[in-house]
What we know:
By secondary structure, the protein is of the alpha+beta class.
Amino acid sequence: MYLRWGLLVSASAMAVVLVAAGVWVYAGIRETASTVTRGQALGIAFAARRTLRSAGEINPSVLQEVLDELAPQGLRYVEVRGPGPIMVGGAGKPASLSAWSPGGHLGPAVTIAFGPSGASARIVAHALDGAGLGQNRPPGVEPPQGSVEHHPLHGKQIVFEVDSAAAHALAWRASITLVVSLLAAAVLMGLTAFFWRISRHAEKASLQLEHDHQLKILGQMSAVLGHEIKNPLASLKGHVQLLLEKLPPEHPGRKGAEVVLRETVRLEELSRQVLEFARTGAVHCEPSDPVAIVRNAVENVGGAEVHLDVRGGPAIWSLDSARMEEVLVNLLRNARDASPSGQLVDVTVDIQPDRDLRVEVRDRGQGIVAGEEERVFEPFYTRRAKGTGLGLALARRIVEGHGGAITAHNHPDGGAVFSVTLPPRTQGA
C-alpha cells in the first residue's frame, strides 16, 4: 500500500513539474517572440518613415509603394492620418482594433501594441520628429523655406501593422511545447491511475487468495474434526437415550442425563454444519418452483410467525432446490431468533428490474452492528451465545454456487434484511 501511495505522490509531483516547466518555457518563448516582433516592427517603421519623408507628397499610391516594398519584411498595413483621427490614406488591410493589446511606449511619440500571439505588432508614431516645431511662432509669421513645417507629413501620424514570420514560428513552438508538457503530464497521470487500479486489483486478488487458502485449510480441518466427532457423538447420544428410557421420572440422575442429551444434540448439529461447510460448494440446478421452495422453508421453521409475499415470484427458476431451501431455512431461523416474541418475519419473493430473482428476509430485531454487514458471512463469526457462525457462511457459499449473491443491511424502520439475488442466466442450467 505504501508503495502504491509513493507511486501516486511521485507521479503527481512529476506531473506538476512537467506542467510548470511547460508554462515557464511557453512564457519565455512568448516573451522572446514579442521581443523579435518589436525589433522587426521598429526596423520596418523607420524604413517606411524614411521612404515617406523622401516622397514629395502623400497619397494612396505612395503608401501602396511603401507597402509593396516592405511587405517581404512583414509590413501588412500602413496608414497616414492627421491632424487628429482624420485618415489621409492607407494601404493594405488593417486588423480589428480589438485584436491589439497595449505594449507600452517605445519613445516620447511612439506606442506599440501586440496581437494575441505576440507575433504581430501595431506601431503608432509621429511622422516627423520635429512635428511640434513652430508652435510658439508669433501669429502671421511664416516658417522659413525648407523647414519641417512645410513637409507634407508635418502634424501627422503614421500607423504600421507588422506580422513577423520568425515570431510566429517561435509562438508556434511555444504552443507545441506547452501542449506536449500538458499531454506528458496527462499521460503520466493516466498511467499512474492505470497502475494504481492494477495494484489495487492485485492486492485484492492476493487478499482473496489468502482468504481462500485459509478457508481451504479450515474446510480440511473441519472435515477431519467433523468426522472424528460425529461417531463418538452418535454413540454417546444412543447410550444417553437408552439411559433415559430406563430411568424413572423421579430418579435424581434423570435431569443430568437430559442435559447431556440436549448438549449432545447441539454438538451433533454443530458437527453436521461443520461437515456441510467442508463439503464442496457445487450445486445441481434444475427447473424448480422458487415459491414452493420458500413455502417449504417457512413451514420448516414455523409458518405462524412469517408474513409471506410471493406475488411477484416467478413460476419456475433453475435452482438446486434442496440446497436453496437450506439457505432459506437458515435465514428464517436467524430472523425468528432475532425478532421479539410475537413479531412477524417478512419474506418477499419478486423479480427485480434487471430480471434477477430476489428473496428477501427481514427480521424485527436490533439489526446488524454498523460495519459488520460483511463480517456476518465469515466462518465462525457470530454474536449469538450458542451460535456456530457457520450458517451464513454456508448460505453464501451455496448462493454463490448458483452464480448469485447474498447481502445484509439494516432496514430504515429497524431490523436486519438479508437479500438473496439470483441472476436470470441460471435459468435452464
